[in-house]
């Protein structure tokens, strides 16, 4: 496969600490960092980060979303409330050395993003 896609949902800069987000939502994240946890001297990361990543080998955003959807939808009201104190973001990461695949955002993913006030970022890594 010439390209691979990953979908990441991130809560960033929230007042609630990442471990509390996990407890409140009942979701085990792919990554979580408290502000300053990686490097206290440089204050890295500069914000709390709680992230849930897809882990499929597929170039279809729909397949990645179908994996994340039941987990995120199970806590959608809680995620919406938590996101109000920071930011929510979906990132569609594309790793490709050749032609970019078509990126189609499923309507249910766009609806969830709208519900929790998340932006959708398309990031092409080369």
Automatic annotation (TrEMBL):
Pfam families, A to Z: DUF4279
Name of the protein in its database record: DUF4279 domain-containing protein
Q: Which organism is it from?
A: Pseudoduganella violacea
Q: What is the lineage of its organism?
A: Bacteria, Pseudomonadati, Pseudomonadota, Betaproteobacteria, Burkholderiales
